[in-house]
């Protein structure tokens, strides 16, 4: 998310209001259902939005981008584009296109997460690594999931490339944005709700974040992550954008034995400004443990300059934290941009 368009929160806290407490089984909703939502989701925040003092401090400190020494490693950022792997219906495959954009293959479907194929996004310098998968190299896209409406996760030029009949799964309140652009199958979900598409379940789960896209729409739409469950019961969790907090343990309780967690590790410095909405690398490893996830694939780094940490620091820190946690090295899928990994049926 961009510093100009997305002001940060100032402290982690307990939930500001009581949370929805549905049964562990998600509420199933039909595809493309038209629904009425509240005008605001500000009661879902888990930390207050920043005030004047926080903005004044941020303006004084001016830590928006890495220092020159932190940019020196840009030529060394991991970039290894390759062809998408051949997979069967029983396989799970992930390919990192960069930032929070993944090509997921689950249950025979090809799913894009927060697709951003643009070179630039609003309020942010051009991407520092190319997109890892060329648009022309993509197979037919069976579905798209969106975590929230910030510009580095909801990119209008990229979505314009999709056929309008592509099924799109979005947070509550965001369907209007897609319907205005003539998408024909838009499914909006609240936290702990789910829907099915051709044998794959799409479940929407909470995150420690917020939403804003214009001047007067703060928290008018919801935010969250997605759990995709294949026909064989194996699950991939895409966190979207989130700070560290209590939701990870609850997601893990409702989805025990997650096979893979796609978790953000970048855009975390200065910490006092960003910790309520972005995990740092150590928190991402802790979140994987809270989730009970068997594997972690880091994301949300090495693509856009959104904050002040050195560009390679997230990778070195997540590797160190994973080792200190005693987790097997092969279960850290620290992919270069453009690379893929396949989880075969036997690996479950």
What is the compact description of this entry?
By secondary structure, the protein is of the alpha/beta class.
Topology:
Layout: E1 27-28, H1 52-61, H2 68-71, E2 92-98, E3 101-106, E4 109-113, E5 143-145, H3 156-159, E6 168-171, H4 175-180, E7 186-189, E8 193-197, E9 200-205, E10 225-229, E11 235-238, H5 247-254, E12 260-264, H6 271-274, H7 281-291, E13 296-299, H8 313-324, E14 340-343
Parallel strand pairs: 1-8, 4-5, 5-6, 6-7, 11-12, 12-13
Antiparallel strand pairs: 2-3, 2-14, 3-4, 8-9, 9-10, 10-11
What would the keywords be for this entry?
seven-stranded mixed beta sheet; Metallo-beta-lactamase, Chain A; 8 helices; 348 residues; alpha/beta
Question: Within the CATH hierarchy, at the fold level, what is the topology?
Answer: Metallo-beta-lactamase, Chain A
Gross geometry: globular
Q: Which segments are poorly predicted (pLDDT under 50) over 5 or more consecutive residues?
A: 1-23
Briefly note the structural class of the backbone. alpha/beta
Explain what the structure shows.
The chain is built from 8 helices and 14 strands. The protein is an alpha/beta fold and 348 residues long. The strands form 2 sheets. A 7-stranded mixed sheet has the order 1-8-9-10-11-12-13, covered by helices on one side. The longest helix has 12 residues, at 313-324. Residues 1-23 have low confidence and may be disordered.
